[in-house]
Amino acid sequence: MKTHDVIVVGAGPAGTTAALRMAQKGLKVILVERGNVPGEKNMFGGMLPHCPAGEKLLPRFHEEAPWERHVVKRTLCLLSETSASSFVFESNRFDRPPYCGYTLYRPVFDRWYAQRAIEAGVTILTGCLAEELLTQGKSICGVRIGRVNGELRAPITVVCDGVISLLAQRAGLRKALEPGDLALGIKALFRLEEREINERFGLVRDQGCSQEFIGCTKGVRGGGFIYTQLQSLSAGLVLHLDSLKKSGLAPCDLFEEFLAFDPVRKLLKGARMVEYAAHMIPEGGYKSIPKLFGDGVLLAGDAAGLCYTNGLNLEGMNLAIASGLQAAETVMEAFQKCDFSAKQLGQYQSRLQECFVLQDMKTYEKSMDLLRNDRLFSVYPRLVGTIMERIFQADGKPRKKFSRIGWDATKEAISVKDLISDLLKGGASLL
Amino acid sequence: MITEHIFELASYRIDPDAHITVNREVCKPCRHRACTFVCPAGCYQWNESNLRIDFAYDACLECGTCLMICERGALAWNYPKGGFGVRFRVT
Question: How far apart are CA B3 and CA A276, in angstroms?
């Protein structure tokens, strides 16, 4: 039996951040990771938006981390069976430091990040599953790991074991997750030459692009995405689990159909699929955040349900890093006071409320509800396509005003009652 | 089909012990059998001749979808032992 100041479970962005910070401040930290290397069990879309918390830990974080491309271009594409309507945003501002965001490979980034933690003095145990939390009275006092004499004890355990977080449930901090709290992400990595990627996506140097698609999931709530890495593309789908379960459709079939949509097929032409992955994403929003602290325990990252989308921003990794940092600050304060009770560790909640983490979760609480509207993923993308087709089509007859075309197409697609309800809800959630 | 090529598209170190077990008595009355279609690795199949769910854990991507959609609690679900299971290289 070994004693440490703090045990951190999970060497993802939340856990590694917490461990790194505490080690920098002189605590004896052990970081337990079930993968053989950090990042081996992650799935990631995606891009990390600019991350000031990373800079706070490592002054040259943005210069030195192993990024793939910096993202200068964001596209939202509404697909229907016959058409695609895209909104493309590019900014010169995003093309110079501090960059707006980066694409990255998680097995590469997580390993690099964990290496910084090791340099700071963190002991890391890889290939090691934290199976159970150890308790003493009502307080958590460590974890049992799957090794001989595998008990690690410490006054505080920071649990960052990811979205499913069996440990958070066992610590009594969270009830069992429901399909309505989650989305399934599936993704494949495609190899493609750098030159081809730059040409197809209109990029130069190490500029990157993110593309999101809706209307491509056969009415299942969710959407598709493509992200550019240097010499590869990540393409995948995110599907609300309750909606998927009800649909009776298989996610890999939906994925193959997504890849067959014309705009997607053209972008991926000749690219070779080299890896396939699936993962849960916390999509329950603010109301599904579990209790974030208990006696001797804190939750951070996906394990704490810290993830949101408002339709345009998709945040998870940034919240993980920021919550890991706040968890570390909370633990340091607890050590100064030699108080590891839930009352003391409750400071964590206040810290997250003071920074963007819980504020953003709260700001977009209602937009998460808006995204539970089935019509957003089927009726509306198709409607936009219909309107655009009618605007551009010439048939020898007199043209109608846009407003007339729009209103006629809308009436055909949706009842006035539903339309008004959607507009009111949409307005309330985003304005 | 992606699931047919899954062992080329993901690498594994397969744990000799299953990390997920299905309690077939509990899942017998289930009508939706959502596990047979939602699993992104296709680990669950309905066996029409034996009238039961067939489950093979070796292609599991450890996403947890099956655990979340099974409202009967028919699954004893754990992560594979440390160092085992799926290994994403570049994802």
Answer: 9
Measured between beta carbons, which residues in chain A are less than 8 angstroms from residue B32? Answer: 245, 248
**Inter-chain residue contact B40 with A177, CB threshold 8 Å:** no
Q: Do A39 and B88 touch (CB under 8 A)?
A: yes
β-pairing, A156-159 vs A6-9, is parallel
CA Rg, chain A, in Å? Answer: 23
Kindly state the helix (H) or strand (E) to which residue A119 belongs, with its residue range.
helix A106-119
Mean pLDDT calculated for residue range A265-274: 97
CB A325, CB A331: distance < 8 Å: no
Nearest to A34 by CA among A114, A130, A105: A130
Burial A60-72 (b: 16+ CB within 10 A, else e): ebbeebebbbbbb
Rg (CA), chain B: 13
Alpha-carbon distance of A96 to A70, in angstroms, equals: 9
How high is the ipTM of this complex?
Answer: 0.97
Each residue of A348-374: pLDDT tens digit?
999 999 999 999 999 999 888 788 899
Residue A204 has a CB neighbour count (10 Å cut-off) of 9
Residue A2 is predicted with a pLDDT of: 58
Q: Which residue of A has its CA nearest to B86?
A: A41
With a pLDDT cut of 90, the percent of chain A lying above it is: 91
Q: Which residues touch A154 (CB under 8 Å, ≥6 apart)?
A: A3, A4, A5, A6, A7, A30, A141, A142
**End-to-end Cα separation, chain B, in angstroms:** 20
Is the Cβ pair B42, A252 closer than 8 Å? yes
DSSP A298-339: EE-GGGGT--EE-SS-EESHHHHHHHHHHHHHHHHHHHHHT-
Provide the sign of the torsion angle of the four alpha carbons A369, A373, A374, A375, taken in this order. negative
Which DSSP state fits A92?
Answer: G
Category of B73 on φ-ψ map: left (φ > 0), alpha (ψ -120 to 50) or beta: left
Angle between helices A379-392 and A402-413 (to 10 degrees): 150
Query: How many Å apart are CA A212 and CA A372, to the nearest integer?
Result: 17
